[in-house]
Amino acid sequence: MGISGSVPSSLANLTAVTQIWLGGNKLTGSIPNLSTLKGLQTLHLGNNKLEGTIPQSLGQLEQLRELFLQNNNLDGRIPDSLRNKKGLHIQVSPGNHQSS
């Protein structure tokens, strides 16, 4: 069955967390601002029903090494702050509506 509803903005209060694995659920809405999670290394939100754009603020997460957002309904561009980030593995396609 999985988790449904929106990604809670209160995740941003978990400042010591290093990994968030919420892939393969029925999460909806947009990706909240998680810029307070300075130690976050892995963010897995793939295979949900998220909409909107990928937040520019994710590029501010200096420790981020893995970002999984495939198979959602995201659109727009991948922010330059993420595209240019050294050592970051990004999985955005298939299943989104990204432009170059």
UniProtKB/TrEMBL annotation:
Keywords: Glycoprotein, Leucine-rich repeat, Membrane, Repeat, Signal. The keyword Repeat applies. The lineage of its organism: Eukaryota, Viridiplantae, Streptophyta, Embryophyta, Tracheophyta. It is found in: Membrane. It holds the Pfam family LRR_8. The keyword Membrane applies. One of its GO terms (cellular component) is membrane. It comes from Salix viminalis (Common osier). This is Leucine-rich repeat-containing N-terminal plant-type domain-containing protein.
